[in-house]
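Support request from a user on the community tier.

User writes: "When I paste my structure tokens into the form, the page sometimes reloads and wipes my input. The last time it worked, I copied everything first. Here is what I submitted, just in case something in the input itself triggers the reload:"
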């Protein structure tokens, strides 16, 4: 068994060295300008790290790393005039460490090796993205998101507090980070795919920020693009896909067990919205579908904080209503809160279930009531923003999606 494990570790080290070395070999150059290390050097270095760790442990691999560092430094100074970068040198030292790691945690070493190879292979695209595509505002949003996810979230206490025991700071922070991340993903989707794929993809991506606002934007566009009435109506309906996905993600973030009671309704609603939207789009292609839908930035920190406060307030009110009026009070709260925002209402209901105040199987009714209430507000927005003809296409789609979700309730 030990011999098999040893061979497996050596094979993993060799594979990592050859993978990274192959990528470096393709970019090492020719003759005088070629780099100091290629396929063979990286493969040997990985095996050297593995053998050193097996024979002498941390002490021996540290000595080998120091010697390799000296050799790499000499090679770097010799090639300083041609290539001032240190990527290859750092990659070589990384291969040595990963080779040593293969003796105890080969799976982790392989994963890190693949990630390093990917970073090296996509050098040009990463440089182009950082220098030409990434804006200062997007960089700032990314730093805020990483700070919230990696610093604030782990420090948030995971316990229920408040007069009615319905508020959990860890859950609130998790949902806030989730909303920020989903908004960023939608923004990246639009930036990556571009507007040429039409209003449908832009509407779905924008729906992660606000499906209701996206429907309003589509309605305003109808006044200038009457020929694209059906396409714009289809995009408005397809924006509900983002709402359904977010509801599922919120439930899963609070407690994965909640999805067991909601997956039938969510899938039925998504399928109904997708089919209705595709049927509207099928007869013709939008001629002006080359402008991205704008409903805000990549993600809006102010909006995230507002949603967080809304989640906290609705959770508190739902806890109070549950304490005084039972599940009927929760349903009344979901109805009125859903008119403005289905996500905050869903989060509050899920939090009540996680805290033990509401059975897991009892969340289905209140969540669907909140979604239904939100659909009513979207129908009103469609009528006001796009007029009677636009609403005539959007309202049946909203009704069909809502009925499908209620019908799918029995499948879960």
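"...and here is what came back when it finally went through:"
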């Amino acid at each position: 068994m030990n011999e098999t494990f040893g061979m497996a570790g050596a094979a993993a080290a060799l594979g990592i060295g050859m993978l990274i070395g192959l990528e470096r070999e393709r970019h090492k150059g020719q003759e005088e300008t070629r780099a100091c290390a290629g396929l063979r050097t990286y493969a040997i270095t990985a095996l050297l790290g593995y053998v050193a760790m097996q024979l002498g442990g941390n002490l021996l691999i540290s000595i080998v790393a120091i010697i390799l560092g000296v050799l790499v430094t000499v090679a770097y100074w010799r090639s300083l005039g041609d290539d001032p970068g240190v990527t290859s040198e750092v990659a070589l030292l990384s291969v040595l460490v990963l080779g040593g790691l293969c003796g105890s945690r080969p799976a982790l070493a392989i994963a890190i090796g693949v990630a390093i190879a990917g970073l090296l292979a996509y050098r040009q695209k990463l440089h182009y993205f950082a220098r030409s595509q990434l804006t200062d505002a997007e960089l700032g949003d990314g730093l805020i998101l990483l700070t919230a996810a990696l610093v604030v979230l782990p420090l948030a206490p995971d316990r229920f507090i408040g007069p009615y025991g319905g508020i959990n700071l860890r859950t609130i922070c998790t949902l806030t980070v989730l909303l920020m991340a989903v908004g960023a993903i939608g923004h990246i989707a639009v930036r990556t795919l571009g507007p040429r794929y039409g209003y449908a993809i832009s509407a779905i991506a924008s729906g992660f920020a606000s499906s209701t606002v996206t429907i309003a934007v589509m309605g305003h566009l109808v006044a200038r693009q009457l020929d694209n009435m059906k396409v714009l109506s289809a995009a408005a309906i397809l924006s509900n896909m983002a709402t359904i996905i977010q509801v599922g993600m919120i439930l899963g973030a609070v407690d994965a067990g909640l999805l067991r009671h909601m997956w039938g309704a969510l899938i039925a609603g998504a399928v109904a919205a997708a089919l209705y939207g595709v049927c509207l789009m099928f007869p013709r292609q939008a001629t002006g579908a080359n402008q991205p839908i704008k409903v805000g930035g990549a993600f809006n920190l102010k909006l995230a904080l507002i949603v967080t406060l809304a989640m906290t307030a609705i959770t508190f009110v739902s806890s109070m209503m549950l304490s005084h009026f039972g599940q009927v009070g929760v349903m009344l709260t979901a109805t009125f809160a859903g008119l403005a925002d289905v996500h905050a209402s869903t989060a509050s209901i899920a939090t009540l279930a996680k805290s033990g105040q509401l059975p897991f199987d009892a969340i289905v009714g209140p969540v669907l009531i909140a979604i239904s209430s939100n659909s009513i507000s979207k129908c009103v927005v469609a009528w006001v923003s796009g007029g009677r003809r636009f609403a005539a296409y959007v309202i049946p789609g909203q009704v069909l999606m809502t009925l499908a979700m209620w019908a799918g309730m029995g499948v879960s």
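Agent notes: The reload is a front-end session timeout and is unrelated to the input. The beta strands are 160-161, 167-168. Residues 250 and 347 are 6 Å apart (CA to CA). Escalated to web team.
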